[in-house]
Design a protein that fits this description.
The protein contains 8 helices and 12 strands. With 239 residues, the protein is an alpha/beta fold. The chain is globular. The protein has a 5-stranded parallel β-sheet with strand order 2-1-3-4-5, sandwiched between helices. The chain has 2 domains: 117 residues, Response regulator (Rossmann fold, 3-Layer(aba) Sandwich), CATH 3.40.50.2300; 96 residues, Arc Repressor Mutant, subunit A (Orthogonal Bundle), CATH 1.10.10.10. InterPro entries: CheY-like_superfamily (IPR011006), OmpR/PhoB-type_DNA-bd (IPR001867), Sig_transdc_resp-reg_receiver (IPR001789), WalR-like (IPR039420), WH-like_DNA-bd_sf (IPR036388).
Length: 239
């Protein structure tokens, strides 16, 4: 069972599709989401989830992987055939391989059961924010963190008023993470985007270069605030 939430705040009118075959979890999610102004639909299996997604056009999907009629990864692939709606996976599966499979299929984030409701709601709000249009049709050019600023157009990083020198590989890794701010990016995706499509298992590359980025940009590299590791899964940039 999820732990109760004490947080507040949501976008009124945002529609959430909850897909889970555990009635107590669905009930807890529906109560918490509706209390914060969300509109909620619920499905207990994959077929109903795909039908509701097509009929109701949710703004975000909260999806359990262990469904009675099909695997949740199949649902993600079915959705990705026609929509980029954010998918937040909620699952009791702890295997890194299964988590990575869901991310590579197109999931945007992954929360493991049992979960805290506050964490889930924060991840959900972040997923919705990332999916919202900016109003200009363009991505933000500058991303500001606590102690540094990333200028994506100029390909520059400034920390405490001074430019930070990054290698081309460090910049490319930083750029991929910043453009997916708040989203868990799988190890395979990072390797293929930064090093090329023939890469996918060389996770030691990521460890080395993430350590370099943290050393150059984090206030406390040993306890990173902005470049977060999700063990066995990937990395997340949190501004």
């Amino acid at each position: 069972m999820p732990k109760p939430s004490t947080g507040t705040g949501a976008t009124a009118g945002t529609r959430v599709l909850v897909v889970d075959d555990e009635p107590q979890i669905v009930r807890a999610l529906v109560i918490n989401l509706r209390a914060r102004g969300y509109e909620v639909d619920a499905a207990a299996d994959g077929a109903e989830a795909l039908r509701l997604a097509a009929a109701r056009h949710p703004d975000v999907v909260v999806l359990d992987l262990g469904l009675p009629d099909m695997d949740g990864v199949e649902v993600i692939r079915g959705l990705r055939g026609w929509t980029r709606v954010p998918v937040l996976v909620l699952s009791a599966r702890h295997s890194s391989d299964e988590k990575v499979e869901a991310l590579d299929a197109g999931a945007d984030d992954y929360v493991t059961k049992p979960f805290g409701m506050d964490e889930l709601l924060a991840r959900l709000r972040a997923a919705v924010r990332r999916a919202e249009p900016t109003g200009t049709g363009e991505e933000p050019v500058t991303v500001t963190a606590q102690t540094f600023t990333v200028d994506l157009a100029a390909k520059k990083v400034n920390r405490d008023g001074r430019d930070v020198r990054l290698t081309p590989t460090e910049w490319h890794l930083l750029e991929v993470l910043v453009r997916n701010s708040g989203r868990l990016v799988s190890q395979k995706q990072l390797l293929q985007e930064v090093w090329g499509p023939s890469y996918g298992t060389e996770t030691n590359y990521l460890r080395v270069y993430m350590a370099q980025l943290r050393r150059k940009l984090e206030a406390d590299p040993a306890h990173p605030r902005h470049f977060v590791t999700e063990p066995g899964m990937g990395y997340r940039f949190d501004a």
